[in-house]
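Translate sequence into C-alpha coordinates.
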Amino acid sequence: MSLAGNGTGQEAPTRGRPRSEAVERAITEGVMKLVEEGVPLAELSIERIARTAGVGKATIYRRWPGKEELFVDVVRCAEPADPELPGTSVRDDLVAMLEQLRLRGVMTRSSALLHNVFAQMKSTPKVWAAYQATVVEPRRRKAVEILRRGQENGELRPDLDPELLNDLFVGPMLLRSVMRPDGDLPEGLSEQIVDTLLAGLRPVSPPTTP
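Result follows.
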Protein backbone atom coordinates (compact mmCIF):
# COMPACT_ATOMS: atom_id res chain seq x y z
CA MET A 1 0.00 0.00 0.00
CA SER A 2 1.53 3.30 -1.04
CA LEU A 3 1.17 6.27 1.25
CA ALA A 4 2.62 8.76 -1.18
CA GLY A 5 1.07 12.18 -0.94
CA ASN A 6 -0.23 11.73 2.62
CA GLY A 7 1.18 13.66 5.56
CA THR A 8 1.87 12.17 8.95
CA GLY A 9 0.23 14.88 10.99
CA GLN A 10 3.19 15.11 13.38
CA GLU A 11 4.52 18.33 14.82
CA ALA A 12 7.67 19.79 13.27
CA PRO A 13 10.94 18.66 14.84
CA THR A 14 12.39 20.91 17.50
CA ARG A 15 16.03 20.96 16.40
CA GLY A 16 15.70 23.59 13.70
CA ARG A 17 16.12 21.09 10.88
CA PRO A 18 13.54 21.34 8.08
CA ARG A 19 11.30 18.32 7.70
CA SER A 20 11.73 16.10 4.68
CA GLU A 21 8.44 14.75 3.39
CA ALA A 22 10.34 12.26 1.25
CA VAL A 23 12.11 10.86 4.32
CA GLU A 24 8.88 10.60 6.31
CA ARG A 25 7.16 8.91 3.38
CA ALA A 26 10.06 6.44 3.11
CA ILE A 27 9.70 5.61 6.81
CA THR A 28 5.90 5.13 6.76
CA GLU A 29 6.06 3.12 3.56
CA GLY A 30 8.86 1.07 5.08
CA VAL A 31 6.51 0.11 7.91
CA MET A 32 3.77 -0.88 5.46
CA LYS A 33 6.28 -2.89 3.40
CA LEU A 34 7.24 -4.92 6.46
CA VAL A 35 3.59 -5.46 7.37
CA GLU A 36 2.86 -6.57 3.80
CA GLU A 37 5.67 -9.11 4.17
CA GLY A 38 3.87 -10.52 7.19
CA VAL A 39 5.98 -9.05 9.99
CA PRO A 40 3.72 -8.58 13.07
CA LEU A 41 3.61 -5.12 14.62
CA ALA A 42 4.94 -6.57 17.86
CA GLU A 43 8.14 -7.64 16.06
CA LEU A 44 8.77 -4.36 14.27
CA SER A 45 11.69 -2.56 15.86
CA ILE A 46 12.87 0.96 15.10
CA GLU A 47 16.17 -0.55 13.93
CA ARG A 48 14.40 -2.84 11.44
CA ILE A 49 12.17 -0.03 10.19
CA ALA A 50 15.18 2.26 9.74
CA ARG A 51 17.04 -0.40 7.78
CA THR A 52 14.04 -0.99 5.49
CA ALA A 53 13.50 2.74 4.93
CA GLY A 54 17.21 3.40 4.33
CA VAL A 55 17.53 5.92 7.17
CA GLY A 56 19.20 6.05 10.56
CA LYS A 57 17.36 5.35 13.80
CA ALA A 58 17.98 8.93 14.90
CA THR A 59 16.07 10.14 11.84
CA ILE A 60 13.00 8.25 13.04
CA TYR A 61 13.35 9.37 16.65
CA ARG A 62 13.54 13.01 15.55
CA ARG A 63 10.03 12.62 14.18
CA TRP A 64 8.39 10.07 16.49
CA PRO A 65 9.14 9.41 20.18
CA GLY A 66 8.58 5.68 19.73
CA LYS A 67 7.25 3.00 17.44
CA GLU A 68 3.73 3.22 18.88
CA GLU A 69 3.37 6.82 17.68
CA LEU A 70 4.90 5.87 14.33
CA PHE A 71 2.39 3.04 13.84
CA VAL A 72 -0.49 5.39 14.62
CA ASP A 73 0.71 7.84 11.99
CA VAL A 74 1.07 5.05 9.44
CA VAL A 75 -2.55 4.03 9.96
CA ARG A 76 -3.68 7.65 9.95
CA CYS A 77 -1.99 8.14 6.57
CA ALA A 78 -3.80 5.11 5.17
CA GLU A 79 -7.20 6.28 6.41
CA PRO A 80 -9.37 8.90 4.70
CA ALA A 81 -8.29 12.37 5.79
CA ASP A 82 -10.28 14.12 8.51
CA PRO A 83 -12.94 16.24 6.81
CA GLU A 84 -12.97 19.98 6.40
CA LEU A 85 -16.17 20.89 8.23
CA PRO A 86 -18.54 23.12 6.22
CA GLY A 87 -19.52 25.12 9.31
CA THR A 88 -22.85 26.00 7.72
CA SER A 89 -24.98 24.01 10.16
CA VAL A 90 -24.76 21.26 12.74
CA ARG A 91 -26.40 18.96 10.23
CA ASP A 92 -23.76 19.58 7.55
CA ASP A 93 -20.87 19.19 10.00
CA LEU A 94 -22.26 15.92 11.38
CA VAL A 95 -22.75 14.54 7.88
CA ALA A 96 -19.12 15.40 7.03
CA MET A 97 -17.81 13.64 10.14
CA LEU A 98 -19.95 10.53 9.63
CA GLU A 99 -18.91 10.37 5.99
CA GLN A 100 -15.28 10.07 7.08
CA LEU A 101 -16.27 7.11 9.26
CA ARG A 102 -18.18 5.53 6.38
CA LEU A 103 -15.25 5.90 4.00
CA ARG A 104 -12.92 4.48 6.63
CA GLY A 105 -15.19 1.46 6.96
CA VAL A 106 -15.31 0.97 3.20
CA MET A 107 -11.54 1.26 2.92
CA THR A 108 -10.90 -1.16 5.79
CA ARG A 109 -13.19 -3.74 4.19
CA SER A 110 -11.59 -3.40 0.78
CA SER A 111 -7.99 -3.57 2.06
CA ALA A 112 -6.99 -6.86 3.66
CA LEU A 113 -3.75 -5.18 4.72
CA LEU A 114 -5.45 -2.31 6.54
CA HIS A 115 -7.90 -4.72 8.16
CA ASN A 116 -4.95 -6.79 9.38
CA VAL A 117 -3.18 -3.72 10.75
CA PHE A 118 -6.26 -2.66 12.72
CA ALA A 119 -6.65 -6.17 14.12
CA GLN A 120 -3.03 -6.16 15.26
CA MET A 121 -3.35 -2.68 16.75
CA LYS A 122 -6.28 -3.79 18.89
CA SER A 123 -4.23 -6.70 20.23
CA THR A 124 -1.26 -4.44 21.00
CA PRO A 125 -2.34 -2.35 24.02
CA LYS A 126 0.29 0.40 23.72
CA VAL A 127 -0.41 0.99 20.02
CA TRP A 128 -4.18 0.89 20.50
CA ALA A 129 -3.98 3.31 23.44
CA ALA A 130 -1.85 5.70 21.37
CA TYR A 131 -4.36 5.51 18.48
CA GLN A 132 -7.27 6.18 20.84
CA ALA A 133 -5.49 9.14 22.45
CA THR A 134 -4.15 10.84 19.31
CA VAL A 135 -6.81 9.99 16.71
CA VAL A 136 -10.11 8.81 18.19
CA GLU A 137 -10.31 11.15 21.17
CA PRO A 138 -9.67 14.40 19.22
CA ARG A 139 -12.36 13.36 16.72
CA ARG A 140 -14.78 12.68 19.57
CA ARG A 141 -14.07 16.07 21.17
CA LYS A 142 -14.66 17.81 17.85
CA ALA A 143 -18.01 16.05 17.41
CA VAL A 144 -19.11 16.93 20.95
CA GLU A 145 -18.25 20.58 20.33
CA ILE A 146 -20.36 20.54 17.16
CA LEU A 147 -23.29 19.19 19.18
CA ARG A 148 -22.82 21.75 21.96
CA ARG A 149 -22.83 24.49 19.35
CA GLY A 150 -26.08 23.09 17.98
CA GLN A 151 -27.62 23.27 21.44
CA GLU A 152 -26.44 26.84 21.93
CA ASN A 153 -27.81 28.10 18.62
CA GLY A 154 -31.13 26.28 18.92
CA GLU A 155 -30.58 23.53 16.34
CA LEU A 156 -30.71 20.81 19.01
CA ARG A 157 -32.61 20.33 22.24
CA PRO A 158 -30.62 21.90 25.10
CA ASP A 159 -31.68 19.35 27.73
CA LEU A 160 -29.67 16.43 26.33
CA ASP A 161 -26.12 15.33 27.19
CA PRO A 162 -23.87 16.12 24.18
CA GLU A 163 -21.70 13.10 25.00
CA LEU A 164 -24.77 10.88 24.67
CA LEU A 165 -25.79 12.67 21.49
CA ASN A 166 -22.39 11.91 19.99
CA ASP A 167 -22.85 8.21 20.75
CA LEU A 168 -26.28 8.30 19.11
CA PHE A 169 -24.89 9.76 15.88
CA VAL A 170 -21.65 7.77 15.69
CA GLY A 171 -23.08 4.49 16.98
CA PRO A 172 -25.07 3.44 13.89
CA MET A 173 -22.10 3.98 11.57
CA LEU A 174 -19.72 2.09 13.85
CA LEU A 175 -22.26 -0.72 14.16
CA ARG A 176 -22.46 -1.05 10.39
CA SER A 177 -18.74 -0.82 9.76
CA VAL A 178 -17.32 -2.73 12.76
CA MET A 179 -19.95 -4.96 14.37
CA ARG A 180 -21.70 -5.92 11.14
CA PRO A 181 -19.03 -6.58 8.51
CA ASP A 182 -21.80 -7.61 6.12
CA GLY A 183 -23.80 -4.42 6.69
CA ASP A 184 -24.18 -2.06 3.76
CA LEU A 185 -22.21 1.21 3.75
CA PRO A 186 -23.85 2.92 0.77
CA GLU A 187 -23.43 6.52 -0.32
CA GLY A 188 -26.04 8.66 1.40
CA LEU A 189 -25.93 6.63 4.62
CA SER A 190 -24.36 9.52 6.55
CA GLU A 191 -27.15 11.88 5.53
CA GLN A 192 -29.78 9.26 6.35
CA ILE A 193 -28.44 8.70 9.87
CA VAL A 194 -28.11 12.41 10.64
CA ASP A 195 -31.50 13.39 9.25
CA THR A 196 -33.28 10.53 11.04
CA LEU A 197 -31.82 11.50 14.40
CA LEU A 198 -32.24 15.24 13.95
CA ALA A 199 -35.94 14.73 13.33
CA GLY A 200 -36.29 13.67 16.96
CA LEU A 201 -33.63 15.91 18.50
CA ARG A 202 -34.67 19.35 17.29
CA PRO A 203 -36.35 21.62 19.85
CA VAL A 204 -40.08 21.06 20.12
CA SER A 205 -42.15 24.15 19.49
CA PRO A 206 -44.60 24.90 22.30
CA PRO A 207 -48.19 24.13 21.41
CA THR A 208 -50.16 27.09 20.14
CA THR A 209 -52.95 28.29 22.35
CA PRO A 210 -56.36 28.47 20.75
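Note: DSSP finds nine helices and no strands in the chain.
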